[in-house]
Here is the input.
Amino acid sequence: MNIRAARREETRQKVLDAARDCFCAGEFDTVSTREIAKRAGVAEGTIFNHFPTKEDLLICCVGQQMAEAIEKGLYTMDPEWCFVDKMMHVASYRFTQVGLNPGLWQVIMQQIVFSPRKGAVHAVMESSGLIAAIQALIEEAQLSGELNRDLPPVLIQKTLMSLFLFTIHEHFSTQNFDCEDMCGTLRELLEVQVKGLWAAEPHLAA
Here is the structure.
């Protein structure tokens, strides 16, 4: 990487760090790009040289943070663990970040999860590597016979992501950001999914 590219990346990281601090302390609409620029020590226009919109900046903030957690989770994972334990190990790193930065995740839940912008949630999950990591774990579990091979991996992945988001929303509603409590909630939901709800095949309506 040449000096110019290195300086550009350094500036981009300063903006991301400043934005994360600002979003942790306030709501999305009340945090201005001028405030972020001042904290980062750059001109306001510099922000838009790296990020088209403030929402794109928020997406990159959380995407980068999630990527770090996922990398740590995958690196420290025991390959002999069962599927649920592997999923919970990765989730525990994410929930730790949520507990340390509840303000940031409050903004994310309000602005991205419940945003009218199409594909915002998927963009965060994909850019962070979370979707790829979960799909790999699913496919591995299907090959080993641990998960139903007849189910499309993408359908299982969407189900798991919905449980993860529900867990965060559930704990935000009670202002309980304890990592162990969040892991306990998600584990219960995951185990129900893995065991299955049906005692017998139902006759479904057309």
